[in-house]
Amino acid sequence: MDDGELKGWTVAVVGGDVRMLEHMRLARLAGAKVQHYGSVPGAEEAAGRPQARSLADAVNAARIISCPIPGLGADDELYAKYTTEKLRLTADVLKGAAPGALLFTCYSTPRMDEWAKAAAVKIIPYGTDDALSILHAVPTAEGAIRIAIENTEETLLGMDVLCIGFGRVGVSVAQAFEGMRSRVSVGARNPVQLARACAMNMTPIELRNLKSQIRNFGLIVSSAAGRVLDKDLLALTRPDVVIIDLCSPPGSVDFEAAKALQRKTIWGRAQAGRAPRRAGRDEWQVLMRILREQTPELQRA
Q1: 86-118 burial, b if ≥16 CB within 10 A, otherwise e?
Q2: Residue 141 pairs with which residues in a beta bridge?
Q3: Rounded distance, CA 148 to CA 229, Å?
Q4: Up-side HSE of residue 238: CA atoms within 13 Å toward CB?
Q5: Whole-angstrom distance, CA of residue 267 vs CA of residue 134
Q6: How many CA atoms lie within 13 A of 50 on its CB side?
Q7: Is the dihedral angle over the CA atoms 89, 95, 96, 101 positive or is it negative?
Q8: Three-state DSSP class for residue 209
Q9: Nearest-5° angle of CA 37, CA 42, CA 44?
Q10: C-alpha distances in angstroms, 160 versus 96, 163, 199?
Q11: Which residues on adjacent β-strands are paired with residue 104?
Q12: Which of 134, 139, 179 is nearest to 159 (CA)?
């Protein structure tokens, strides 16, 4: 990034966890004025100014609004680890943003779209950006290894591990467990992904065949989108199984059914945050790439 690329711009960084500190630092390095809200420790130093008095004040005059990648809660509130306040980017909050402001978020919802439209703010959901997903896969896989070590009573060496999902995150997760010399099987629907798993010397299992094989695994790690581990499949797992769900809400596991069946389940969402400096830097670099693509004045710079 060129120093001064965002000179004269105001950037609002709202909600999130400590990875947002990198958004603030890098925005300042690019010459922007940074406004923030969300009570993240260290934010005043990273942004070079105290926290705004309110979410609306943080957004005021901002051309870029940077929201946390972990996404939204059930009532469209931003993920905000360090405050109990419900942070919602309503039309009233957004109306003070600069004309044509860009709001970068993990994903959007119909109500959030309405709020942004009413305030003439453009939402850019970049949580599924290919490059960002691949970059985030590294700390996510490391986080999955940590959770597994903390919650199992055997070594990962020689353990039969089922990794459900073999997309951008799933590949790194499966490789991480293979690196621990676990016996890795991959569950997926996509025949190309199953072929890739076979080529990587992992055992491929079509999801439709899981019922006959799922009891073989003491550890199941899911990065698959959508509800995969439903009540019927969970009932077929070993009583001592450990299940790690790495997915964003609503997750890929029926948690209520797992609790009723007394299956140990850990929802390991937002594992990229375990390496906040790396994850925050990766997020900002992807945000800036998209910004340059959509902003003619930056393309000419």
Answers
A1: ebbbbeebbebbbeebbbbbbebeeebeebbee
A2: none
A3: 18
A4: 15
A5: 20
A6: 3
A7: positive
A8: helix
A9: 55
A10: 54, 10, 19
A11: 66, 124
A12: 179
pLDDT at 76 over 70: yes
Question: For residue 26, how many other CB atoms are within 10 A of its CB?
Answer: 22
Q: Say how far apart CA 99 and CA 253 lie, in whole Å.
A: 42
| pLDDT score of 42 | 98
Q: Which pLDDT score, from 0 to 100, does residue 119 have?
A: 97
DSSP-based three-state secondary structure for 48: coil
Q: Which amino acid is at 43?
A: A
pLDDT tens figures, 189-241: 999 999 999 999 999 999 999 999 999 999 999 999 899 999 999 999 999 99
Q: Residue 223 is which amino acid?
A: S
Residues 6+ apart with CB under 8 A from 287: 23, 64, 66, 104, 126
What is the phi/psi pair of residue 108, to 5°? -115, 175
First to last CA, the chain: 12
Any residues with CB less than 8 A from the CB of 127 and at least 6 apart, and which?
A: 69, 71, 105, 106, 107, 248
Residue 176 tokens read as: 């991480």
CATH numbers and ranges of domains, the chain: 10-125+275-300 (3.40.50.720), 133-269 (3.40.50.720)
Residue with tokens 């670099």: 285
Torsion on CA atoms 282, 285, 291, 294, rounded to nearest 10: -90
pTM above 0.85, yes or no: no
